Amino acid sequence: MASQHPQPERGSGSGRRTGGLGSGRGRRARLAGLGVLALVALVFVVQNRTGTEIRLLWWSLRMPLVFVLVAMIALGVGLDRLWVWLRSRR
Q1: How far, in Å, CA of 84 to CA of 90, rounded?
Q2: Does residue 16 lie in a domain region?
């Protein structure tokens, strides 16, 4: 029995990808971008590894500044996602 849905043609073209996500140039650009981000993250951690005292009401603790900054960013992103989710339910 023959298929009722037409099948896409195979073998049309030279088999090379032109542009797109799988191209060599795009892959190198993504790897370079990831490398730059990794380097910036490493510099951020090294420069902010000194301890700092955090106080909230009657609590007080000492931790590296980088952890405080990352925690505050994560808290902000979490609150934003919660706000968007709550607004979408209306």
Answers
A1: 10
A2: no
